[in-house]
Amino acid sequence: GKDHTKVADTYYNIGLLYKKQSKYKEALECFNNAYRIRKDKFGDDHQYTKAALEGIAVLYKIARLQLECKK
Question: What global pTM score does this model have?
């Protein structure tokens, strides 16, 4: 189903590809979907859940750095 852990893995991997292509909005959506599924299936302390959350954090850091460079 749409909330299977393999779907979360796919979202995560596509998020990584989008991030490499600098498509940050799309990457964020994928990482958020992966995080939601993984949190539901594995809980907060699982390494896969934390990896998805880290992907989200990295994107926010990139966005902050881009804003600082525009100042």
Answer: 0.90
Backbone dihedral region for residue 64 (phi beyond 0: left; psi -120 to 50: alpha; all else: beta): alpha
| Residue 62 CA: distances (Å) to CA of 8, 9, 20, 27 | 23, 22, 12, 12
Alpha carbon distance 10, 14 (integer Å): 6
Q: What is the mean pLDDT of each run of 10 residues along the chain (71 residues)?
A: 94 97 96 98 97 96 88 75
- List, in sequence order, the alpha helices (H) in 1-71: 5-20, 24-42, 47-70
